[in-house]
Amino acid sequence: MTSATRTVIISGGGTGIGLATAEAFARGGDTPVLIGRRAEVLERAVERIGGGAVAVPADLTDPAQVARAADEIGKRFGTVDVLINNAGGLAGGGEPTGAEPADRLAAMAAEWETAFRLNTLSAVLLTEALRERLASPGGRVLFVSSIAAYRGSGRGSYGSGKAALHPHAFDLARQLGPRGITVNVVAPGLIADTEFFGPDGMPQERLRARVSETMNGRAGEPGDVAQTLHWLASHAAGHITAQTIQVNGGAERGR
């Protein structure tokens, strides 16, 4: 963590929180490496960030693609200083109207399996693939969870997928601690200007209700989360590990 330029891997780095995080590290002189399924989105992000930002397209739910991405990163950069598991998403589907019980169960199984793959498995596979390349000492592993891991979101599959990251992160912190690597979780609340909560992501009435739950009377911004991640990846946060930091304006309190 003492070098002027660090290699920072950010999954889901093409939009929202991931993009804001990549920009924050780039401003600090680091090299963001953006991973995601949509190559065109990543390329636009790299063009916007400029400098040495790099795009590595990969579906992180596919072990073979994760292995290829990790191999490419290893050949190009060698050591990974910071790994930020930000990728995730809502699983579509849900209960089909008027369907038979077996069809409803099949739809539920598909939704929950997809949510697990998007929010949990993607992070687990990428971390495992890059585990031996993490800087020792000084490496940082960060997981982006959600307020839904604490209180649900109306879509139990999503909150459960994010909640599964917490014990995984704590186990990793114990395993990687002897190497001088910290592992932490950041759990955002309502963050505007993202694909989740943008103009088409949530009805305005519900958006206002969510904002009213905060203690500072505003929605979060991608930069709020990005700066928290940036600090946790800094030398100053070297004695913070196995923690969950909530970034939600006080909508969910201290646990």
UniProtKB/TrEMBL annotation:
UniProt key word Oxidoreductase: yes
What Gene3D superfamilies does the record tag this protein with?
NAD(P)-binding Rossmann-like Domain
Q: What highest taxon heads this organism's lineage?
A: Bacteria
Q: Which UniProt keywords apply?
A: Oxidoreductase
> Would the keyword Translocase turn up in this protein's UniProt record?
no
GO MF, one annotated term: oxidoreductase activity
InterPro entries for this protein: KR_dom (IPR057326), NAD(P)-bd_dom_sf (IPR036291), SDR_fam (IPR002347)
Tell me which stretches of the chain form a coiled coil. none
**Enzyme kind, highest EC tier:** oxidoreductase
Q: Which residues form the Ketoreductase domain?
A: 6-194
The EC code for this enzyme is 1.1.1.-
Q: Which family does it belong to?
A: Belongs to the short-chain dehydrogenases/reductases (SDR) family.
Name of this chain's protein: SDR family NAD(P)-dependent oxidoreductase
Q: What is the originating organism of this protein? A: Streptomyces carpaticus
